[in-house]
Design goal:
Blueprint lengths: L3 E4 L3 H10 L9 E4 L4 E2 L6 E2 L4 E8 L10 E7 L14 H4 L2 E7 L11 E4 L4 H9 L5 E6 L5 E7 L1
Antiparallel strand pairs: 1-10, 2-5, 3-4, 5-6, 7-8, 7-9, 9-10
The site of zinc ion has 6 residues, from loops.
Length: 155
């Protein structure tokens, strides 16, 4: 399989959320106790039921333009270690239904590389998307609500 890295959101954004209480859309963050395994976009682990989390709107850096979208995200309320492992699909992807969305260097969605399925079974479709010469990056979203989980880059 092509070497890859699952990339969390910039930890500075989570720090800004925690410090200001505001999200990327200017909304007041919701401070919650997780009521389900809630995917933290910094450490890429599930906050367990009862753990304090922040819920806010994250403005994705890419894709830009026509495919750009904001996404609701959870982050741990207290600082957590950003995910850094290589060639590893993180817990928040493995543990739910996900969609794989590939984009080219011009931020065009490469539809034929898209995939939706159980996170435990995305190794092959993810490898296919990353190995395709058209692919600049891949975003993985939750399959049901469609929220961004992480970006994936080759190498
Ligand atoms: Zn976390």
């Amino acid at each position: 399989m092509t070497a890859f890295r699952c990339v969390p959101i910039d930890p500075a954004i989570a720090e800004r959320f925690r410090a200001t209480g505001r999200d990327d859309g200017g909304n007041t963050l919701r401070r919650l106790a997780a009521d389900h395994p809630s995917p933290c976009r910094v450490c890429l682990r599930n906050a367990q039921v009862g753990e304090p989390v922040l819920l806010g709107s994250y403005h994705l850096p890419r894709p830009r333009g026509i495919y750009w979208t904001p996404s609701p995200i959870f982050v741990h309320e207290t600082p957590c270690a950003p995910f850094v492992a290589s060639d590893t699909i993180p817990e928040i992807v493995r543990s739910r239904m996900v969609s794989v969305r590939a984009y080219d260097a011009a931020d065009q969605c490469v539809y034929d590389l898209g995939h939706a399925g159980d996170g435990d079974t995305i190794d092959a479709p993810l490898a296919l998307a990353l190995a395709d010469p058209r692919t600049a990056f891949v975003n993985i979203h939750t399959a049901k609500p469609g929220c961004l989980l992480c970006r994936v880059e080759a190498g």
